Amino acid sequence: MSLRSVGWVTLVTGSFAVVVGCSKQSGSPGSCYRERDSTCTEYSAAESVAAQRMCQGFRWTSGTNTCPKENRIGACVRENGHVTEMMYSGPPNQFTPDIARSTCERAGGTFNAL
Question: What is the torsion angle, in degrees rounded to the nearest 10, for the CA atoms of residue 11, residue 5, residue 74 and residue 62?
Fold first, then answer.
């Protein structure tokens, strides 16, 4: 993942935290799969309304544990455990466990390999 992508992910995460903090609505849990970033984030019911807005242009799937399991190589945990982003091998970023760990740590997270 390029530094530009890391910056984008950090910006989205920060923006999401602001939106969630200001939102009183809740919906059903789900996930946002961002194929171009090789990542997917799971959201709780309390976060889902804001998350669906942030996921426009990507693939939202309702339900719990809905991030794809195929090609998953690990999870990046950030925001004191409040954000868990699944990371995937394969195109477009061709993540390996080492590259995923490095990318996660540059974004301020802790990488948990699967």
Answer: 60
